[in-house]
Design brief:
Strands 10-9-8-11-13-12 form a 6-stranded mixed beta sheet, with helices on both faces. It is of the alpha+beta class. About 30% of the residues are buried. The protein is about 20% helix and about 20% strand. α8 packs antiparallel against α10. The chain has 4 domains: about 55 residues, Beta Barrel (OB fold (Dihydrolipoamide Acetyltransferase, E2P)), CATH 2.40.50.140; about 170 residues, Rossmann fold; about 45 residues, no CATH class; about 150 residues, no CATH class. It starts with 13 loop residues before the first strand and ends in a 13-residue tail after the last helix.
Length: about 500
């Protein structure tokens, strides 16, 4: 049952953990209290279960203000709007420590190529994985089905993945599994009907989540769990239950990066291998016949087709304009070129229109939602001469008093200070008309706790950023009203 809304009496920002995300609300665990918070539309695609967020109280319902940086995330490509269109990133869970693919010993029949995809995605995102086999009571001891199951899973044991055999009906293996689940946050992934929610109800009797039996005609599970939800465990740690997944694509993994996602390595053999790559053990001979190859199951060969992620559905970029000729004194003339076209944000994957009618600026570089930019310009805005091309993070806000002079004058034009994540170069961009005011204010709040290294670099470039005394003036400029003072613990 969906929890009822509740409010907080404290007037300061509070930090909480997202337990579950709904369409227009999120359920947040703040201390010992569980409450519902309003989800602003511009943050709907930036929050997931497991995120640490900051919210502000409101008369009717607390409101999400910002999402704190994640230490990890588990993603897959979302459904595209139309065939051939770009598939955006879908973050299944955030801030997890372990990924546990769950498969049933029988009913439904395990599809091991799906397990390979789950493990490859975990390796690509730097998350350790464990394998859980449920419904072990359906395979009698010593039966051919059990022998085949153990022979298959011995391959994964040899690769270093722990395997747990449990049964929610008999309770076997639950004690050992519960001891491992107390180590951080574990994400349960798998098909519908494998028993993820049933396993959760056995580990946490108070959960009482709805479950349904496997379809007797098709042998497939019924889609019962509809959203990812985080459940803290009494003995420590937490478990995140997710909806069943019949398909799972790999996000932002190119064929060149596929080898790093497997404890085996890619072995180029034949046309089929040149297209997808064939997986062999590390101890395979470098040349000559491959005696170990016939012993490997077909599923570990070439059933993984990677999803190019951010490269999918993109048109090739238009050709760059010809560079102007050099002057006689050896310096290059600087011309302001308009933005070449619409683009997709390098950070939040949001589609950004470069038309000046929406942004009010001629050279659109940054995203209006997350405010991230890309290191494109070298000398002047729009020259597109930088060779770095790395993402640029918004670190602070400043005010432009006159050309090339940035300071705290409250009557100047509001500007965003970006810093390249690769080379550390600073760039100052004017605020566009469609930039999110909440994101701008969140950048200002984060700038109050910048490191001494960044502050020294800003001072070296003669950039004076807005500080805490400028909060009321900035809030009035962005929202048209005064704001509450930020407590010390909110920016620590």
């Amino acid at each position: 049952m969906k929890p009822q809304p509740s409010t907080i009496v404290d007037s300061a920002l509070f930090t909480g953990l997202v337990l579950q995300k709904y369409i227009h609300q999120i359920q947040v665990l703040a201390g010992d209290h569980t409450l519902m918070c309003a989800l602003p539309p511009h943050l709907a695609t930036h929050v997931a279960a497991g995120d640490v967020v900051r919210c502000e109280p409101a008369p009717d319902l607390p409101r999400l203000v910002t999402v704190l940086p994640r230490r990890s995330e588990y993603s897959r490509p979302a459904a595209a709007s139309r065939p051939g269109a770009h598939a955006p990133q879908q973050v299944i869970a955030a801030n997890v420590d372990w990924v546990m693919p769950v498969f049933a010993a029988a009913s439904p029949t395990p599809k091991w190529n799906l397990l390979d995809r789950f493990l490859a995605a975990a390796e690509a995102q730097g998350l350790p994985a464990r394998i859980c086999i449920t419904k072990c009571d359906l395979t009698p001891s010593g039966s051919p089905a059990e022998q085949e199951l153990h022979e298959t899973l011995d391959l994964y044991r040899g690769l270093g993945y722990p395997v747990f055999f449990v049964s929610a009906q008999t309770g076997s293996g639950l004690g050992e599994l519960c001891g491992h689940l107390s180590q951080g946050t574990t994400l349960l992934v798998g098909k519908s009907g494998v028993g993820k929610t049933t396993l959760l109800n056995a580990l946490l009797p108070g959960a009482d989540q709805a479950t349904r039996a496997v379809n007797a005609v098709t042998g497939k599970g019924r889609h019962t769990t509809t959203a990812a939800r985080l459940y803290p465990l009494p003995g420590g740690g937490a478990v995140m239950d997710t909806p069943g997944m019949r398909e799972f694509g790999l996000w932002d993994i190119t064929p060149e990066d596929m080898a790093a996602c497997f404890p085996e390595r890619i072995w180029p053999v034949g046309h089929h291998a040149r297209r997808y790559g064939c997986l062999l053990p590390r101890n395979a001979p470098p040349l000559g016949p491959l005696p170990l190859w016939p012993q490997l199951p077909t599923r570990r060969r070439t059933r993984l087709r990677c999803s190019p992620g951010r490269h999918a559905g993109r048109r090739p970029p238009p050709p760059l304009p010809k560079l102007p000729a050099l002057e006689s004194r050896g310096r290059m003339k600087h011309y302001t070129h308009p933005t070449f076209g619409d683009f997709t944000c390098c950070h939040c994957r949001q589609f950004v229109s470069a038309q000046a009618a929406f942004s009010g600026v001629q050279n659109r570089n940054h995203c209006p939602v997350c405010l991230y930019s890309r290191h494109l310009d070298l000398y002047r805005a729009g020259d597109r001469l930088a060779a770095c091309k790395a993402p640029m993070r918004p670190v602070a806000l400043t005010l432009k008093r006159s050309p090339k002079k940035y300071g705290p004058d409250r009557h100047g034009e509001l500007m965003i200070v970006h810093r390249c994540q690769d080379c550390g170069t600073f760039s100052i961009n004017r605020v566009a008309a469609d930039d999110c005011a909440d994101s701008l204010f969140a950048v200002f709040r984060a700038s109050l706790s910048l490191s001494a290294e960044i502050l020294a670099a800003l001072a070296q470039h003669s950039i004076q950023i807005l500080t805490a005394p400028d909060q009321d003036a900035l809030h009035a400029r962005l929202f048209g009203c005064q704001s509450l003072r930020i407590p010390d613990w909110a920016v620590s």
